[in-house]
Amino acid sequence: MSKDDLVGTVTLINFWASWCAPCRIEMPALDSLDRSITDPDFRFITMNEDENPADAEAFLDEFGFEFPALLGLGELKHAYFYRGLPFTVLLDRNTNVVQRWIGYTGAEQIELIRSVIEAELARGGEGGHDHGRSARAEREESPGAHTEHQH
Question: pTM score > 0.90 for this model?
Fold first, then answer.
């Protein structure tokens, strides 16, 4: 899957790993969020960062998740400038970053993500903007972030 495959959709991408405790807490909430948004222009994709694909498969089977889970193997880290997991990014219909979330802080964060998704969907095809902050302006970590070196 490439960025070109995402053109025309509002896409939420979540980076996670099976060993990441906050990821294990966040994922059921994101799955519920995904199931509740029925707009055909919305996509939810997860990017697993486990070194062993079998670990990712076991995690998905444990929870019964059916959303697309791609293997990132750390290759997209530089494209989205994330330093810890979980990391979530929302892309507009032109694949521009709308917003980034580092870590998982609870139900309020999921509702914030929902509101940003709904606002972006309401924009229709008006994309072409980047109202996300640059990686340098992002906080290093938020509460609930699991940094990459905390395996």
Answer: no
